[in-house]
Amino acid sequence: MTKFGFLLSAMLLAGTSAMHAQMDASIKLNEVMTNNRASLQDEYGQREAWVEIENISHSTYNIRGMYITTDSSVLQRSMSVPERIKRMSIIPNGELRTNLSGRQHLVLFLNSQPHLGSLHLTTPVDSTKSLWIALYNGNATQLIDSVTVPVLKADQSYARIANNGTAADWEVKSADRVTPGISNITTVSESKIDKFKREDPHGFAITIMAMGIVFVCLALLWIVFSLFGLLMKHIETAKKVANKQPLKPITKTVETAMEVSRITGNVLQDGLKTKGIDREIYMAVIGMALSQYEDDVHDVESGVITIQPKPTRWDDEYSQMTHFHDPVVPSDHAAPQIPTTTNNAL
Fold first, then answer.
1. For residues 90 and 138, what is the distance between their CA atoms, to the nearest angstrom?
2. Which residues are bridge partners to 149 per DSSP?
3. For a disulfide at 142, which of 71, 137, 171, 270, Cβ 3.0-4.6 Å?
4. CA pair distance 283, 260, nearest whole angstrom
């Protein structure tokens, strides 16, 4: 074999090994039951411990030739392969059900005999102790998956709920939640009526609920009518007050107060402009206005102004022109003489 052929064979072998390793990682232990009393039965009506294997990928993979073991001594690296195989149970060839398609499950019975069926393995299980169970590849050297199962009660299972590689990926399931052959995470569609019937088979809860609804409705009606009565009472009281004390005098009083306030403001502004001069006068005016407002004292005026003419003749030109008529003799003798003739000198 040439160097090129040897290198090509090595590359093909490495690629095949990597592909098989990737495919092996898609095969997982999914659910384990160690104390089967009233759960899954085999073809003969017997109930044995069982383990469920799942292909978590979307590709088809055949798990024939792989090994199941519950003997933790196989973890010793110094142990030979033939010795390790003695402590394991092989998944037989020639079984169509071992060819797992994507997301498919397969249940293998433990603590059983192979002559009962191809899915029955001799792998020992002690339900009174915690159990380490592992899945190895076809060469019995590569550990594909393993889990330590705690002591379980009758018909309980230990199931995988996630694939994060931690202990939190597993949980104990009660007998009514065990799911052999299907996904461990299931969604059940149940109507509200069916759920209510299931949770309240005797009808006590629906009776209490109905009585509570009636009581709440009556309480709400009482509150509404009480508030309505109070509102009507206040409206009636307001009407009586309005009839006894009309709004017009109140409005007049408010207008008068506003007018006094305006006048007072003007007076104060004028006082500020005069820099405090005649402050006492302004204070007296304000006090008098407030006193008159409080005592309701004010002038009663008709609002009609009457002006009667009174002649004084002060601008009568005729009485002042003495050369056209007899002079007016003043009643006062001490008054100067008014000339009655024309001044010749002029």
1. 8
2. 131
3. 137
4. 14
